[in-house]
Amino acid sequence: MTPAPVTVRVPAKVNVQLVVGGLRPDGFHDLANVFLAVGLHDEVTATPADRLRITASGPDAHQVPLDETNLAARAALALAARHGIEPRVHLHISKDIPVAGGMAGGSADGAAALVACDALWGTGATRAELLAICAELGSDVPFSLVGGAALGRGRGERLEPVEVTGTFHWVFAVADGGLSTPEVYRECDRLREASGGGHTAADLPEPQPTPALLEALRTGDAAALACALANDLQAAAVSLRPSLADTLRAGTEGGALAALVSGSGPTCAFLAKDPEAAESVAEALLSSGTCRKVRVTSGPVPGATVFPDGSPD
Ligand code: C5P
């Protein structure tokens, strides 16, 4: 009997603190990366097929690569190789997370495809095995699997739990066109070098999240979280895309508690006091004309989750 299709829903993330340490010999940077999963989701559906095939739908689907550079394809290949099976699967990505926006959309699809293929093929991979494959696929992929909130150490893939109370309300301003993550890290190194800072991992102490950030998450205090938000990649993203400074300013003037670039950008994230404040920040951003579209959502939300009946809703 042909197995029924499996659909997995997976969230976007925002980095509430992204502390970038030194450049390592392997080309990655040591990080203290505090992730929060937020309620913008992609859905990946795995259906039996004669060969690996990727399709995508959604307003930005034309920007999604449909070849083996797609993390969803790489996830299926990695799981199949480990279990000695052929990756005969059609993966359909229903895309709602901004593409190349610094919200881990590609990573989310990798984590979702892995969980979907595991269920479709009955490979029965343990959580530890899934996390190990995620870490091979990319630095943010393990977090997409687990969701909620977590501190990522190493290059961001070694996760530690972070306690969160309640829900935080966010507005995301989506820019036209993406930014390349490696380019943003390179620009971060260039800016640091230009300002005379040391830049190898050996020169710098291990990056750490601030106690104030962890306390704000633990107590569910949005005003305190606003003061603790920080992204060491922000200056680099703004340097590469100077118009982001206007977007950040428009959201702050529109009533956000705080504004920051999400991950490597160019999506900008705005923390709001409550859902009503989030709506009015969104309106202010839209009327400012400094972004392509806005999304209002909240977090934390769970990580990659199989729909019990194999299809959403
Ligand atoms: O791991 P991932 O594929 O998401 O990384 C993409 C690129 O981002 C890496 O090739 C590297 O240039 C940069 N990166 C980094 N340090 C990290 C994570 C990513 O320099 N901790």
Automatic annotation (TrEMBL):
Pfam families xref list: GHMP_kinases_C (PF08544), GHMP_kinases_N (PF00288)
Domain GHMP kinase C-terminal: 213-286
Active-site residues (renumbered): K13, D140
Pathway: Isoprenoid biosynthesis; isopentenyl diphosphate biosynthesis via DXP pathway; isopentenyl diphosphate from 1-deoxy-D-xylulose 5-phosphate: step 3/6
Record has Secreted as a keyword: no
EC number per UniProt: 2.7.1.148
Disordered: region residues: 298-313
Residues the record lists as binding ATP: P98, V99, A100, G101, G102, M103, A104, G105, G106, S107, A108
Record-given protein name: 4-diphosphocytidyl-2-C-methyl-D-erythritol kinase
Molecular-function GO term, any one: 4-(cytidine 5'-diphospho)-2-C-methyl-D-erythritol kinase activity
Function: Catalyzes the phosphorylation of the position 2 hydroxy group of 4-diphosphocytidyl-2C-methyl-D-erythritol.
Enzyme class name: transferase
Catalytic activity: 4-CDP-2-C-methyl-D-erythritol + ATP = 4-CDP-2-C-methyl-D-erythritol 2-phosphate + ADP + H(+)
Family note: Belongs to the GHMP kinase family. IspE subfamily.
